[in-house]
Design brief:
Radius of gyration of chain A: 27 Å
Number of helices of chain B: 5
CATH class of the largest domain in chain B: Alpha Beta
CATH superfamily of the largest domain in chain A: Aldehyde oxidase/xanthine dehydrogenase, molybdopterin binding domain
CATH topology of the largest domain in chain B: Ubiquitin-like (UB roll)
Largest sheet of chain A: 7 strands, mixed
Distance between the termini of chain A: 34 Å
Oligomer: heterodimer
């Protein structure tokens, strides 16, 4: 079932053709980069066996028929000064894996955090990685780095033992020093690594430290490099400057799908220092400073022709009309007909979600530089290796001639999977013969990136008067298959995802379709609870066998004080599961009687993602997800018509702000007996349905579309 | 179009040679290599580009450089003294008041302006003052906490 869903997601998020070939960070390249000290490498096969299925789901690349390559997935290096470097292709975008992955390495090696440094997301230095998405870094990359670190520790211990001519079992690491059995002798990491040039591949069965013995993981280590961010020193892609660098601007089409008819670039070309680049429908300029580049861009007269395209008002009909027949979202369980026959009450409802924008505060940016046929691009992306591949295809050069470096980036939320900006910057740099920096404007971000898919979800169900759900039929059109499966114990299910034709460019987003699917499911559950006059928590518990789901629901309800009510307020709850973690969200709202404006007053969210790696940053992630969810729940909504985005700027697109933030209480359930799951996504899915249900509780109006916005748009029910 | 030839930034008079209508943001970032001040929206709606001019917060993305000529500009680079973070910067770290950090400079500058004017703001006053600054990662409550820690009004000190 999960395999099928993953494949569906792959198709949904495929934005472009997959690569015809793929070069890996192989042993030869590795040895070139390795100068001395001790290195432990994790073969790609270790990593791929676990992740291929899941990661391809979002990268949109179907590599299932490929032979698993025998190359390097991650590696750890201990240099002759005893400094530990861990190499990973993952990127840091604010989720703090630079911290949590270093914690894993420090933990295994028994060294302080200050001795560990992470080298991330540089296609010349770090091993191939499909990308940073899907909450995969914690469950997949951390254990691999742990294995490498554990193997490094054992290797170092053996070397120390050899030096002392004792058995390895007599050597331990205490406070970053190797000591013998009675601690009469000691060596530092540097002393053991000195003069060595040793490369080892980790054995597949190397044991890693169990959670109960963690000393650095499991603690609230502060953000690595935090000081650079509060002092303005950190260099994002947008801040990089190269010798002789020019500034780029792109002349954008009048609408999506527009074709260039005529252009007049003479005035721009006459400006001193300006280079105009015209290649097919691509028109861009470079200039020695940004203001000149902007003037040159504006001086270019262009006539575009765009086809008529659907707008907001017809969106949901359009998606339904253009949907494919059932795409086999999963084999039905039991029989819907039997389930309906056994029901006392039946309910059929339709739910919708709008397109929304990621709006990462650092827009897409790239600095591109050609040097003797070799291209280097610095760019903020969640898929540096994917961008390298896009560049190779765009410029018809081998990937070996391209280096993509991703500085720690000003967030992504699933919005930075593609390499348009990198390609544009590289095209401008090639034409002008100088390094070029291109930073997308906020308007370009809204118009030329991609959106979280909009969708229509139809749910029809049957329920017995005692609260047992007997039939569950669920059809999602266009928004995606993530989080579509239920963790409830429903005997008869038919759950389908239907591809459709999207009028707007769409792609990944934090949590993908799990937000839409949880919204429809959990609002519908609330409707069913009311249909049989049951308390929504009691009704859910009646249909849950899964202990972990039960635990988060009960934790949220009890911390929230579920059942206690204040006049004029509404209360709602929702729960769910996605990407290995469990969530329940309870919300209290007020609705202004005159304006219909919804205010979220209080939120309690319980979250369980196995063993907690860093409580401080986990709290921060969960809190941030709740706040980001407020936008999609209440007001974010891309308006469009004829290929034009009508509200693509911050003065028109409403984002969550300080004054929107309710009182938030987070209950983290630490399951030290379970492996750690990622936490960047799932905490976002519970808010919208909880708020929708609270609005109903407050007003009796049932809103079935996101954003919930002003409640008078809904229908009573 | 007259050019602007010098700018007072963080207590230093710096030579520049830019068109007077150039937004201050780009003079700081591209001409003076002070990249701590960020572009976010270009229309004064996100606060990422906030700097102080004679102690008052302005959005440098929409402020022509001519308008600050002869005045004192303070940027994020001017908060550290003798290589030491100030109390507000420290509080941001203690409260873990950032994720990706891209909004942080603007948040710190807006908060600095508030505390200069009102050293012990109530939470409501902080929210009102900071509402024009966007943190897309959603660390608002942590930023509020950090400002209260720096002001000495925090009820709960973060773990």
């Amino acid at each position: 079932m999960n395999d099928l869903i993953d494949q569906l997601e792959a198709e949904r998020y495929e934005l472009f053709e997959g690569p015809a070939y793929r070069f890996n960070f192989n042993r030869r390249q590795f040895l070139k980069a390795f100068s001395g000290g001790i290195a432990l490498i994790v073969p790609m096969s270790n990593l791929v066996a676990h992740t291929l299925q899941q990661e391809q789901g979002e990268s949109g690349r179907n590599r299932s028929n490929e032979r698993v390559p025998d190359d390097i997935g991650a590696w750890i290096h201990i240099d002759e000064n005893g400094m530990v470097s861990a190499y990973t292709g993952k990127v840091e975008i604010g989720q703090n894996i630079r911290t949590s992955l270093a914690q894993a390495v420090a933990d295994e090696l028994h060294v302080p955090m200050t001795m560990v440094r992470l080298v991330m997301a540089d296609t010349d230095l770090t091993p191939f990685d499909l990308g940073t998405f899907g909450s995969m870094s914690t469950p997949r990359m951390a254990p691999q780095l742990r294995k490498a670190a554990a193997a490094a520790r054992e290797t170092l211990i053996a070397l120390a033992a050899e030096q002392w001519k004792v058995a390895p079992a007599e050597v331990r690491i205490v406070n970053a020093r190797f000591v013998n059995h009675d601690a009469s002798k000691s060596l530092t990491l540097a002393e053991v690594a000195k003069g060595r040039k040793l490369v080892k591949t980790i054995p597949p069965d190397v044991a890693i430290t169990p959670v109960r013995d963690w000393t650095i993981a499991g603690t609230s280590v502060p953000k690595v490099d935090g000081r650079d961010f509060v002092s303005g020193k950190h260099q994002y892609t947008t801040d990089l400057k190269r010798e002789g660098m020019l500034y780029g601007r792109i002349v954008r089409p009048s609408a999506l799908e527009a074709k260039l008819v005529t252009s007049d670039t003479k005035a721009a070309e006459a400006m001193p220092g300006v280079v105009v680049v015209r290649d097919g429908d691509f028109i861009g300029v470079t200039a020695p400073d940004l203001q000149t580049a902007i003037r040159a861009e504006k001086a270019i007269a262009v006539h575009w022709q765009a086809p008529g395209q659907p707008g907001n008002d017809e969106l949901f009909d359009y998606l339904r009309k253009n949907a494919t027949a059932s795409r086999g979202g999963g084999r039905p369980v039991g029989s819907i007909a039997d389930g309906m026959a056994a029901a006392d009450k039946k309910l059929a409802q339709t739910y919708t979600v709008a397109y929304i924008a990621h709006a990462p505060l650092e827009p897409r940016a790239a600095v591109a530089e050609w040097n003797g046929g070799k291209l280097t691009v610095w760019t903020g992306t969640q898929r540096p290796f994917g961008v390298r591949n896009e560049l190779a295809e765009a410029f018809h050069i081998p990937e070996e001639k391209i280096r993509v470096i991703t500085p720690d980036t000003g967030s992504g939320y699933g919005g930075k999977h593609t390499g348009e900006c990198a390609i544009e910057a590289a095209r401008l740099a090639r034409a002008s013969g100088k390094p070029v920096r291109l930073v997308w404007t906020r308007e370009e971000e809204f118009n030329w990136a991609y959106f979280r898919p909009a969708g229509v979800i139809e749910v029809s169900t049957g329920v017995k008067n005692d609260g047992t759900v007997t039939a569950w039929e669920f059809h999602n059109y266009n928004s995606g298959g993530a989080g579509i499966q239920v963790k409830y114990d429903f005997p008869n299910q038919n759950i389908q995802f239907h591809n459709s034709k999207s009028p707007l460019r769409q792609g990944s987003y934090r949590g993908l379709a799990a937000t839409a699917n949880h919204f429809a499911r959990e609002v519908h559950m609330d409707e069913l609870a009311h249909a049989v006059n049951m308390d929504p928590v009691e009704f859910r518990l009646k249909n849950i066998k899964d202990d972990r789901l039960k635990a988060v629901l009960q934790a949220a309800a009890s911390t929230f004080g579920w059942g206690k009510k204040t006049e004029g307020r509404g209360y709602g709850i929702a729960c769910g599961f996605e990407k290995g973690s469990y969530i329940a969200t309870a919300a209290e709202v007020s609705v202004d009687a005159k304006t219909g404006r919804v205010k979220i007053e209080r939120v309690v969210e319980s979250f369980e993602c196995g063993a907690i790696v860093n409580e401080l940053h986990l709290n921060n992630q969960v809190e941030g997800a709740i706040v980001q969810a407020i936008g999609g729940a209440l007001f974010e909504n891309i308006e469009f018509k004829n290929g034009q985005i009508l509200n693509g700027k911050f003065s028109k697109y409403r984002l969550p702000r300080f004054s929107d933030v309710p009182k938030i209480e987070i209950v983290l359930l630490d399951r030290k007996d379970l492996p750690s799951a990622g936490a960047g996504e799932t905490p976002i899915v519970g808010l919208a349905p909880a708020v929708g249900n609270a609005i109903f509780d407050a007003t009796g109006v049932r809103v079935r579309s996101m954003p919930l916005g002003l409640i008078n748009r809904g229908s009573t029910g | 179009m007259a050019n602007v030839n010098s700018l007072n930034v963080n207590g230093k008079k710096l030579p520049v040679d830019v068109d007077s209508q150039t937004p201050l943001l780009y003079v700081l970032r591209d001409h003076l290599n002070m990249t701590g001040t960020k572009y976010g929206c270009g229309e004064a709606r996100c606060g990422a580009c906030t700097v102080l001019v004679d102690g008052l917060p302005i959005r440098s993305c929409v402020t022509p450089v001519a308008r600050v000529s002869g005045k004192q500009v303070t940027t994020i680079e001017g908060l550290e003294k003798d290589g030491k973070l100030n109390a507000l910067q420290d509080a941001f770290l203690k409260a873990d008041a950032l994720q990706c950090g891209y909004c942080t400079s603007g948040m710190l500058m807006s908060a600095t302006a508030l505390l200069n004017k009102n050293p012990k703001p109530t939470r409501d006053e902080i929210v009102k003052h900071m509402d024009a600054n966007v943190c897309r990662c959603g660390t608002y409550l942590r930023i509020l906490n950090a400002i209260e820690m720096a002001a000495g009004t925090a009820k709960e000190v973060v773990e």
